[in-house]
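Notes from hallway chat w/ T.B., transcribed later so I don't forget. T.B. wanted the structure written out for a chain they're using in a teaching module, and asked if we could keep both sequence and structure tokens in one place. Agreed to drop them here.
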Amino acid sequence: MRLRGRFTLWFTLAALVPIAAATLTTCEVVSESYRQQFERVKQSAEDVAIREWEARRAQVERASAALADRDHEIAGALLIEMEKAEGEVSAPALRGVRDRARAVGRGMGLDILLVLDEGGRVLVAPHNQAALDGADPGGSDRMTTGEAYAAEEAVWTGDRLTEELTVQAARTVREGQHAVTVVAGTLVGDEILAAADKLDQVKARLVRAEPGDEAPGEGGATIRIPLEGPGGTARAWIDARVSQDELRGVLADVTRNAALLGLAALAGTTALGVWVSRRMTRDLDALVRGAEAASRGDLEHRVPVRSHDEVGEVGAAFNVMMGELAESKARLAGAERMAAWRDIARRLAHEIKNPLTPIQMAMETLRRAKEKRHPSFDEVFDESTKTVLEEAARLKRTVGQLSELAQLPRAELSLCDVSEVAGRALSLYRGDDAVAGDIEEGVPEVLADRDQLAQVLVNLIENAREAAGEGGRVRLFAGATADGGAVLGVDDDGPGIDPGVRERLFEPYITTKKESGGTGLGLAIAHRVVAEHGGTIAVEDAPLGGARFRVILPAARGPS
């Protein structure tokens, strides 16, 4: 952050501290009473819901205790019949007990009345006639301790059988060698929520649990009371929500007023801080602009000096430094140009000198043969002139590539399909079994000059073929980079490139093919083309065992 911004920020914070303290104190005092009232309502809702649930549990526990009695007309009658018939109950006696069970359950306020024998067979079930003589629908999870629990139970409602949430209690009663289990229960519906709904700001509901569900997390103004089944697993929850509308309204009013006060103070303080900081940092801003000009290379820029304090002294020293830098830059540029011309002249002289020596020797041989009237003059003439022509062609090639390096046309960039360019370069070697391709699918498009990019690939392939030699292998590859760009290049299985040469391989006249007449300009041209495309070219060891030239082009940002 700039000095002006920091100064203004500290001004603002200094003013906001007392305002914030006063605002928070007022907000806390006003809202605390409303929070306490809200907590009382919330606690009342929770107490009412728990009390209603416990009342249901107590009802079925009392009913199960009354039914599980040897003298009761249901359990007692069944036990007597079992004693008579060694565990069996005759059909007429069982029919009579079933007929009485409906009236007994209704009289005790029960929706569920289930009697099971020792094997878990259903003897009595007025709420679900379809379950008679079948297996216990509660299975092995059935609790027989007399403690109430929540459970799903199939009950006839209207004209169909549905799974309903119930609160049940079961007990086992014995007589001699035989025993029956009596299950008493009532349906649990929205009526259990009536007491909680009567409270102001409270809305309750019953949430049924699905298999595999976990209890919803508590939070905010929600009260959740689990209705546990056998094993302590929640079969449903009483979900009571306490409205916070009134509390939110009060807190919103207090917060809004405090915010308006804070914004007013902030605006005034910020305006004052901006005015003061602008006067203090005006000269510093001029120095920053001067430094930016220096970084752009504008060494003619000077900063105005308005004061004679420390900042003014820095400005004057800066102007002196800019003048000295301008003079140094001019001297350095002249020295760099002179060094560059010397290097080019030295290298060009070396490249021209190499063919001049065989040309001179060929001409001297030809002259001596003519003076001595050599009998094989025609043969000497043919060999000498051939040497002269070959070296002249080499000179012409060197001058041509030097001209190409100096006059390489500017790249005309457009969206380019790298796969298509690589395929076009590969097609030039369709009859050469030594050259293979590995072009991935989905190579992204890049901004490139198709012709120049193809020229680079052909140059790299030709270099690789010469390095691999007769019977060698060359592989052209293309793919995508992690950042959406494209990578392509050429591998060979030749002898590779000496690490000492790699650092200067892309400089003009640096070549590893002097025996075959290499000029050392091909890779320099390729390096320039790739650089103008915003990419990089590098040499490394290839998986095939030789050298790999890898070209990386950046992702396309749109048409040029």
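Follow-up for T.B.: Residues 212-220 have pLDDT under 50 and may be disordered. Might be a good example for the class.
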